Amino acid sequence: MLFIYLIQLAIFYQLSTAFPRNFGNHDLSAKESTDGVARFFIIGDWGGLPIAPYKTPSEIAVAHAMGKLGKTFNTSFQLALGDNFYFHGVQSVTDPRFKV
Fold it and tell me: In this predicted model, what pLDDT tens digit does every residue of 22-50 receive, in sequence order?
């Protein structure tokens, strides 16, 4: 099963660098690697609060740490997995839960 996920991630990375797409304010792209190595973060089950401001101090600390590590290790992209919006979910791409 892990092998299948790794293959899917490799395909995602290759497609996102070979065919970057414009989704308006919601771009899906990855930086090209200069050394042929794909470096990335995967985070899942990051949850949040059901009311504004939606984020917790722990989530903010993790986001800052990921930003620093992303710069240090020159990551190409970050991938967020499921279980991100608890309770009532989100209604659209303009949902307040996406605002920073």
Answer: 555 555 566 777 787 888 888 877 667 77
Q: Give first-to-last CA distance, the chain, whole Å.
A: 35
Instruction: Please answer whether residues 97 and 90 qualify as being in contact, where contact means their C-beta atoms are separated by less than 8 angstroms.
Output: yes
Within-domain flag for 27: no
Task: Identify the CA nearest to 81 among candidates 53, 41, 51.
Answer: 41
Give residue 81's domain range.
Answer: 37-98
**Residue 73, amino acid:** F
The dihedral over CA atoms of 90, 88, 62, 53, expressed in degrees to the nearest 10, equals 80
The reply to whether 77 falls in a domain is yes
In total, how many domains does the chain have? 1
Kindly state whether residue 25 falls inside one of the protein's structural domains.
Answer: no
What pLDDT score does 21 carry?
57
pTM of the model: 0.52
Asked whether the beta carbons of 33 and 76 are under 8 A apart, the reply is yes
- Tokens linked to 44: 């899942």
